[in-house]
Amino acid sequence: MTQAEIGLIGLGTMGAALALNIAEKGHRIAVWNRTGSVTTEFHATAGALAANVVPTQTLAELVQAIREPRAIILMVPAGQAVDDQIAALRPLMGKDDLIIDAGNANFHDTQRRSAEAEAAGVPFVGMGVSGGEEGARHGPAIMGGGPKAAWDRVAPVMEAISAKYQGIPCATWMGPAGAGHFVKTVHNGIEYADMQMIAEVYGIMRDGLGLDAQAIAGVFESWNQGPLRSYLVEISGKVARAVDPDSGAAMLDVILDSAGQKGTGRWTAIEAQHLGTPVPVIEAAVGARNVSSRLAERKAGEARFGAGPQKVDGLTQTDLEQALMAGKILCYAQGFTMLAAASETFGWGVPLPEAAKVWREGCIIRSDMLGDMAEALTQDDKRNLIFAPAFAAHLEKTHNALRRVVAAAALGGHAAPALSAGLAWFDAMRTARGTANMIQAQRDFFGAHGFERVDGGAGKHGPWAM
Ligand code: NDP
C-alpha cells in the first residue's frame, strides 16, 4: 500500500474535518484515534475520500503507515492529552520525524514541549488552527510556530488545506517555539472581544430600542453589506433570524444568557498583564463571560435593585454601527500591540502584517477590516493601529458615536463593558496630561517610591504631611 504523506491523531470535531480536508487536497493521510471504533467509522463514512485515508488501530501501525521523514498532527484536547500523546509517540518515531500540536495549546506549554523536543534533537511545531469545524473541513487559518525548517516541510500541505484570501493561502509561520500558538491565543482574545461588542450592541437594540430578533437580524444583515462586513456580523444576522422549531420563538429568545469558554480569551488577558500591554476590551469581554455565568446572582441583583436595562432615546442604528466599528478598531489596535510586545519580549520576530493577512479568511474573526489592517501594518508594523492614517480617519468619524452609545448604555442601565473599555482606552490614549501623577504622589506618600517631575527637575520625594 502507498505510504501516507502525513498522519493525524484525534478524530474529534476538528481532527476529522482536518483529515478530510487533507485527503481532499490529494494528500494521503494516516489516522488514529484513541477510541478505535471512531477511526473505523470515520473511514467508512469518508466516501470517495476514503481512498486517501489510511485508518490505523495502533500507534505503531500509524507510524509505519507514514513515509519518512514523518509528520503527525495532534488534534486532541490541549493539556495533558498532548503530553501523553507525545510521550507515547516519540519512542516509535525517528529523529527527523515531526510532531505538530494543532490544538489550542497554551503557548507556555508549547515552549516547554519545544524545549524538550530540542533537547532530544527532534522537531516539534505548535500550530494554531482557527475556523471551527467548517474551517477545518474547507479551509482554516493556520498559524505555525517552531523551527522554520520543520514548518517548511509541512507548509505545502498546510497551505493547500488553508483558507485562501484572493488566492493567497492563510497559513504562515509566525516565528519560533510558541509563536504560532501565541498568535492563535491573541486571535481568540480578539474573537471574545468582537463577540462581546456585538452582544452589547444586540442588547441595546433588544432592550433599549425594543427591536425583536427579526428586526435585529435585518440590522446585522445590512451592516454586513458595509464596512463591518465580517463572519461574526454575518452569523449574528443568521442566529437572530433563526426560529426555534419547538416553540416557534426566535432562537435567540430561547437560549440561556450564560456564555461558555475554554480559556483562550482568559490566557490573552493574563499574558497581556504579564507583558504590561493593555488589552482592556479583551479583558472586559473575558470578564463579561464570567459575569454571564453567574445567573443566580444576576437574578438576585435584578430582584434587589430593579432591572438594569431601560429604553434608550436618541440612538440611531448608525450610531450603533459606528460604535461597533470604533470598538473593533480599538480592540484590534490593542491586540496587535500585544503581539508586538510579545514578539519583542520573546525575540520571536512575529511578522505582524502576516498575522493580519492570515486572519483575513478562514478564521472566526475574518473581516473586510482585516485587509485594511494588514495593509496598514505592512506600511508600518511598529505603529499603534489607531495612528495608521486610514484607522485614525475612521476613529475621527466614529468615536463620537461610540461615546453616544456608551453614554446611552450607562444612563439606560445596559452593561456594555467592552465598548466602554474601548472608549476609556481611546480617551486615555488622547490625554497627554493624564491622572497618574496622583497615583505617583500616593505611591510616594505611602511607599516612598519617588516620582519624576514635569519640569525635569530632581523631584524624588514629596513634602508630604504624615
Ligand atoms: P473533540 O472533543 O471533538 O475531540 C477530541 C479528540 O481527542 C477525540 O478524537 C478524542 O478521542 C481525542 N482525545 C481526547 N482525550 C484524549 C486523550 N487523553 N488522549 C488521546 N486522545 C484523546 O475536540 P475538538 O476536535 O473540538 O478539539 C481538538 C483540539 O482543537 C482542542 O485543542 C481544541 O481546543 C482545538 N480547537 C477546537 C476548535 C473547535 O471549534 N472545536 C477550533 C480550534 C481549535 P476519543 O474519540 O477517544 O474521545
UniProtKB/TrEMBL annotation:
GO terms for molecular function: NADP binding; phosphogluconate dehydrogenase (decarboxylating) activity. Keywords: Gluconate utilization, NADP, Oxidoreductase, Pentose shunt. NADP(+) binds at G10, L11, G12, T13, M14, G15, N33, R34, T35, V76, P77, A78, N104. Residues 180-465 form the 6-phosphogluconate dehydrogenase C-terminal domain. It comes from the Bacteria. Its EC number is 1.1.1.44. The keyword Oxidoreductase applies. One of its GO terms (biological process) is pentose-phosphate shunt. Pathway: Carbohydrate degradation; pentose phosphate pathway; D-ribulose 5-phosphate from D-glucose 6-phosphate (oxidative stage): step 3/3. Substrate binds at N104, S130, G131, G132, H187, N188, Y192, K262, R289, R443, H449. The active site is at K184 (proton acceptor), E191 (proton donor). It catalyses: 6-phospho-D-gluconate + NADP(+) = D-ribulose 5-phosphate + CO2 + NADPH. InterPro entries: 6-PGluconate_DH-like_C_sf, 6PGD_dom2, 6PGDH_C, 6PGDH_Gnd/GntZ, 6PGDH_NADP-bd, 6PGdom_BS, NAD(P)-bd_dom_sf, Pgluconate_DH. Catalyzes the oxidative decarboxylation of 6-phosphogluconate to ribulose 5-phosphate and CO(2), with concomitant reduction of NADP to NADPH. Belongs to the 6-phosphogluconate dehydrogenase family. NCBIfam families: gnd (TIGR00873), PRK09287.1 (NF006765). Homodimer. This is 6-phosphogluconate dehydrogenase, decarboxylating.
